[in-house]
Structure formats: structure tokens, C-alpha cells
């Protein structure tokens, strides 16, 4: 009987932190309103959600695309350093585009914009830790 030589294949595990932040950022920016009509924080305006604004604003569409790509980076079979560098690029660009959209709109921002900005900043910090640029331990 012939012997079979098997070689184990090492696959990097899912990076749950990037996957979670990408999913939360995408879903929050898609479903929550980006602006509000007045000073009231609890007003829900369906016309101001990310899904509605993505049709008319290319910046919101780009922010949603970057958030989805960020979640996919968490699933990619890359090394931690490569995932970290991708998270830095996507997080920095996403936070910049979301901030540009807020300044250009000239309206009071709401929860969708807050979730987008904080999600991208959290992904940026995670990317800095993963690639080794931020050593806090």
C-alpha cells in the first residue's frame, strides 16, 4: 500500500475586529440618517439615510463602498500586516470622505455620519495595531 504524504495548509483566520467594524460602519451608514432638519437628535428622516443619499451623492456611495471593502479585508486570506495596511488605507480614506461630505452638506449631522466616522477611525486604529505601527503592549 502506498503512503500518502499530506501537507497541512495554514490559512489565516478571519480577523473578526475588522469584519465587525466594517459591517457596523456599512450598516449604520446605510440605514441611519446622515443629516437632520433641526436641533433634535432623535428625528428620523428617511430621505437622509445613507441608502437614499447614495443615489444622489457620490461621496456617500464611496463611503459605503469603502465600509464594505473594510469588512471584506477582515475575511481576506492575508497576513495580519497586509490586513493592517489595507485597514489603514480604507479607514483613513473613509474618514476623510465622510468628513468632506459633512462639511460640504452644510447641515447638522446625525447618527449615520457619526457611525461612519467613528467606524472608520476605529478601523484605522485597528490597522495601525495590526501592521505593527502602534505598539501598545
Verbal overview:
The chain is an all-alpha fold and 137 residues long. 62% of the residues lie in helices and 0% in strands. It has helices at 16-31, 50-53, 58-75, 80-105, 111-131. α1 runs antiparallel to α3 (58-75). It is elongated, with a radius of gyration of 19 Å. The N and C termini lie far apart (52 Å). The mean pLDDT is 89.
Topology summary:
Layout: H1 16-31, H2 50-53, H3 58-75, H4 80-105, H5 111-131
Helix pairs in contact: 1-3, 1-5, 3-4, 4-5
Give a short overview.
The chain has 137 residues and is mainly α. 62% of the residues lie in helices and 0% in strands. Helix 1 packs antiparallel against helix 3, helix 1 runs antiparallel to helix 5 and helix 3 runs antiparallel to helix 4.
Amino acid at each position: 500500500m502506498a503512503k500518502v504524504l499530506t501537507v497541512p495548509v495554514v490559512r489565516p483566520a478571519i480577523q473578526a475586529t475588522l469584519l465587525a467594524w466594517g459591517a457596523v460602519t456599512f450598516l449604520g451608514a446605510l440605514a441611519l440618517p446622515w443629516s437632520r432638519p433641526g436641533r433634535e437628535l432623535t428625528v428620523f428622516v428617511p430621505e437622509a439615510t445613507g441608502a437614499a443619499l447614495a443615489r444622489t451623492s457620490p461621496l456617500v456611495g464611496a463611503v459605503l463602498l469603502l465600509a464594505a471593502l473594510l469588512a471584506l479585508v477582515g475575511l481576506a486570506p492575508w497576513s495580519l500586516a497586509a490586513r493592517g495596511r489595507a485597514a489603514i488605507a480604507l479607514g483613513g480614506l473613509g474618514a476623510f470622505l465622510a468628513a468632506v461630505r459633512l462639511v460640504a452638506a452644510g447641515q447638522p449631522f446625525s447618527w449615520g455620519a457619526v457611525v461612519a466616522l467613528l467606524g472608520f477611525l476605529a478601523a484605522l486604529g485597528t490597522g495601525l495595531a495590526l501592521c505593527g505601527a502602534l505598539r501598545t503592549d
